[in-house]
Amino acid sequence: MTALVALSLLVPIVAGTALALANVAERRRAAAVVAVGAALASLVLLAVVLARTGRGRTVVWWGDWPPRGRVVGIDFAIDGLGAGLALYVMVLALPALLMAGYAIRASAQLFYGVCLVFVAAMVGYCLTGDLFDLFVFFELMSVAAYVLVGYEVRQRAPLEGALTFAITNGVGSILLLFGIALLYGKTGALNLAQIGRALHEVGPSGLVYVAFALVATGLLVKAAVVPFHFWTADAYGVAPTPVLILLAGVFSELGLYGFARVFWTVFEPALAAHHDAVRAIFVVLGVATGLLGAALALAQHHLRRMLAFVVVSQIGLFLVGIALLSADGLAGTAIFVVGDGFAKAALFICVGVVQHRYDAIEERTLHGRARALRPLAVVYLIAALTVADLPPFGTFLGKALVEDAALSAPGWAWVPAVMALISALAAGALLRAGLRVFGGVGEPAPRDERFAPREEDAARSDEADVAVGVPAAIAAVLVLAALVWGLVPGLAQAVTDAAARFIDPAGYAAAVLGGGVGASTPAVPAVRGPGVTAYLYAAATLAGAAAVAALGVAGRRLPAAAARAVDAVRALHSGHAGDYVAWTAGGAAALAGLFALTLR
Amino acid sequence: MTVLHVVALAVVAVGGTTVVLVRDPVRQALAASVFGLALALLFFAFQAPDVAISQIVVATVAVPVMILLTLTKLRRDEDEERRR
Amino acid sequence: MTVLPYLVAGWLLVVGLWGVITSRQLVHQVVCLTVVQSSTYVLLLAVGYRTGGYAPIVSSSVPPSSPFVDPIVQALALTDVVVEATVVAVLLALTVQAHKRFGTADPDRLGELSG
Q: Which of A26, A402, A414, C28 lies most in the core, judged by the most C-beta atoms within 10 Å?
């Protein structure tokens, strides 16, 4: 087992490093084969790890340093959700690497190399059981992402986006490490389970709140939760399409995974009496993120930035599911993340193809120009409907579980309605843009004064000769995957099982450290399939999305007051890394203050 | 806690502030180099010689050199622009 | 151990962040980021320091029963120093590229992305 886990990381890292070092500029195809082969090998290994972990936990102590009284070694503590997410990372790596053959022009082998290191770091991040190790993998995937986002260095916008992204996320990483150092000072431990036990003994204190706020900020910057989301549109607006598949599909979500993992292993034992306050803070934060992201997506006519804000809105929904602090909420989120990730990857591929073919990205400039791309339009439409909860796609199944979790949590019964509203607004923006670009329906989008007004100036009539077939096929497979994901028999119950183990800190500590009283198996809620309410919410979401899209293409504007408010919020996204860092620092301070006020 | 610690901490605090306040990038690179050296001395005082040594290599030599190289490159680009 | 090292670490964090927020020159901004980074080194080493402790190097000149400072934080700080240097290198490379292509290192004048 140790060898399996080690190889699943080492194969992509070694292959990636070799590709980056090898100077074989002419051998693009060979580089692609090596990269895809390494990803496939890692995928198979991770599948075996997941199968063998099954309903238990796999704990691997590197260098054979198991704890003897106190923890000295570094461990990977693998459970169903962690291994499943790692597997999903590798699944998404395949379309990303395949797309790279079409989208990346310069030094492709270097791109493949960095990409492999990027996914390997994400896998390590999913599996590790050590807080500092988590930070190192976090930093490795971040640095790889900075390089990948700015890969098209010959253009202006990608460089800017990469710089903003790197500075904002760099500050987030430092805050995370600061929090880790405080925790180590308090407990003398770096192992997640051991810190959890130590904090449980000392109980909450001012230092613990500050550490929690800093760690949460570092991870939520990655996740793009309000007010730490500012970098998203700038980075997603400019990154190459293959990178976007990974960024939108899993990178941001990993921030939330880290948050959930650290909360449930490190802080929950000390804050067990304060579930209500934690739930309130983070559900509200999630709802705010969802609403803001959806509103800004509606206000955008730059296709990639619009998609970036759709990503932000979905992140808000995921945070809500996690913050309900229940097994079914978490399980629903996990299913939702995967289904939604496939759909978003497909959407980014569609937009990338259109952008390359017509050399434009504004809804207004592209109006009706992509009529010829029928198959792509169909894929785009289904992917957009997947975001709007179309049964029986994976998003529907996941969201149904989250809705059940919210309805059974006293006081949070209003959450599913708001979630439906968020999905309807976000999917409405997607549908509106799709109808205009692929169908030429209705009025052209209004001229966007705030962003990229110069695009219209150049007359662009000639279409670039860009291959549509293969990218469209990859996108179609991704949409199909989102559909199949929702139809896997027994999925909801299996993931709920895994989630119940995930939110059981005592069991986790017992598996990692031995001893303890929590060796019992946690109670797993029985899961029903999506009920009538789930179908009602889905129908409302779909109807809402259609209505929003129809109003949009009819050229209906917002009332003046609302338009001014949206514009004021848009103005905050200034493109300055400094401003974004100010929001991050302020948000961290606000979180610490909130914790100190509410968690006592 | 000895006098050495207090002095080293004070120097580091003042050094960090100076690095931020110096707005001219070339002077800032020099300030950053001195700040890195102060940090290294602090690490020695904290009985961490290996961290101190790597800090000297990275923060007093490598990073300032990278900054100066960056600035030289920016200047040269600007000069070329002007000549054109 | 007094609180002074923690105060200094906190001060470096705050003053460095203030520098990053107010900076209007990319190179300057990156150097301010190194100040923020250094706050974590100070914090880590302060956390592991014990009054009168020796450096964690076992040799014949140090009696085996004498107190050592915590070696783990030193390993962490060492890793941290290297990781953060990588981040700075990537950022400076991006800055050079940005300047080379567009002739400015002033974030105000880049301004292609907003809203």
A: A402
Counting every residue written for chain C, the total comes to 115
Residue A384 within a domain: no
Whole-number pLDDT of residue A456: 42
Q: Are A4 and A45 in contact (CB under 8 A)?
A: yes
Residues 6 or more apart whose CB falls under 8 angstroms from that of B75 comprise none
- CATH code, C4-49+68-100: 1.10.287
Chain A touched by C29 (CB under 8 Å): yes
Query: Is A168 a member of any domain?
Result: no
Minimal CA separation from C62 to chain A, in Å: 23
pLDDT exceeds cutoff 50 at A126: yes
Provide the domain limits for residue B40: 3-83
A144: closest CA of chain C, how far (Å)? 10
Q: Chains contacting B with at least 3 CB pairs below 8 Å?
A: C
> How many beta-carbon pairs under 8 angstroms link B with C?
128
pLDDT tens profile B13-71: 999 999 999 988 889 889 999 999 999 999 988 888 888 998 898 888 888 888 888 88
Number of domains in chain A: 1
Write out the residue range of the structural domain in which residue A123 sits: 1-129
Q: How buried is C49 (Cβ within 10 angstroms: 0-12 exposed, 13-18 middle, 19+ buried)?
A: buried
Condensed to tens digits (0 to 9), the pLDDT of residues A199-230 reads 998 888 888 999 999 999 999 999 999 889 99
**Nearest CB neighbour to C42, from listed B42, B74, B78:** B42
Q: What is the pTM of this model?
A: 0.92
What b/e readout covers A359-376, taking b as 16+ CB neighbours within 10 angstroms? Answer: bbbbbbbbbebbeebeeb
The tally of CA atoms less than 13 A away on the side-chain side of residue B77 is: 17
Instruction: Read off the pLDDT of residues C23-78 as tens digits, 9 standing for 90 and up.
Output: 888 888 999 999 999 999 999 988 888 776 777 776 667 666 677 778 888 888 88
Check if C34 contacts A (Cβ < 8 Å): no
Encoded amino acid at B53, one letter: I
C-alpha distances (whole Å) from A334 to each of A199, A289, A340, A485 are: 28, 18, 10, 12
A585 vs C17, C47, C80: nearest CB: C17
List, as one string, the DSSP characters of A114-147.
HHHHHHHHHHHHHHB-BHHHHHHHHHHHHHHHHH
Task: Give residue-wise pLDDT tens across range A412-435.
Answer: 999 999 999 999 999 999 999 999
Q: Where are the domains of chain C?
A: 4-49+68-100
Give me the interface pTM, i.e. the ipTM: 0.90
Q: Which chains touch A (3 or more CB pairs under 8 A)?
A: C
- Strand, coil or helix: C54: strand
Q: Does residue A282 register a pLDDT over 80?
A: yes
B77/C19 CB distance under 8 A: no
Which is more confidently placed, C22 or A522?
Answer: C22
Residue A354 lies in a domain: no
